[in-house]
């Protein structure tokens, strides 16, 4: 069974530590070896700039991570194919892996929409408006003032609509979420869970979930332990509770997975790295028919692609 994973931070790890071997370094949750074991999988690679990088240097970090992607991933491993259109996925051969570039937060573009246009030309096909804090686009989830979109933020979403690519609302404040959802044609949350089951600020409340479903959006259930449960040592069964809850809200066609592998220091028992997707799929098959499991782990995100 094929896998679509909507979020990992491998590029951030490679940027932080250039000595990491992308092929099979044990420090990576997602490595080339692990990806190749899952034929024709699709992995989204986030471009993430941490908050300790000075504002004026953030665009340079974005460019560095894109260069790492092209030089250390695509150039060295031709079986990894950059996905720019849905037809690129259709052309994958049995041993290929699809790779989608995503931007996690618009801090680096400042107030320059042309920078976003350049990133689009380089292959970025999903754009998160914020990380956890405010930028010139919107407020993030950890801003106490809970501000919404700026005028520039609305221009950003209009641009994404025009390119038919995803507006990722995972890290937005609640007000930003609602204002963005109103105008975004292709909204997703690439890595968020259910607030009712785990009341973390990064998780979605029921009314947000239902509104996202109504807009034909996607939720990437994530494997971040503290987004999954407040109890110690979470397991796969805790992740399945979020899947089941979302299905009960009518999300069968709107649920996928965004692991956040390589963006987390602690992992869920049974989901320690990308290779655990095999076991995870088997666990899902204990509860859902194969047709449903295929939609959850792959087809729903594929069907949601409009570019």
How would you describe this structure to a colleague?
Helices cover 38% and strands 13% of the residues. It is built from twelve helices and nine strands. The chain has helices spanning 10-16, 32-36, 58-74, 86-90, 113-122, 151-163, 174-183, 206-214, 225-228, 236-248, 277-285, 290-304; strands spanning 4-8, 42-47, 80-82, 97-104, 124-128, 166-168, 187-189, 218-221, 255-257. Strands 1, 2, 3, 4, 5, 6, 7, 8 and 9 form a nine-stranded parallel beta sheet that branches. Helix 1 (10-16) packs across helix 3 (58-74). The chain is globular and about 45 Å long. Pfam families: Peptidase_M19.
Topology overview:
Elements: E1 4-8, H1 10-16, H2 32-36, E2 42-47, H3 58-74, E3 80-82, H4 86-90, E4 97-104, H5 113-122, E5 124-128, H6 151-163, E6 166-168, H7 174-183, E7 187-189, H8 206-214, E8 218-221, H9 225-228, H10 236-248, E9 255-257, H11 277-285, H12 290-304
Parallel strand pairs: 1-2, 2-4, 3-4, 4-5, 5-6, 6-7, 7-8, 8-9
Helix pairs in contact: 1-3
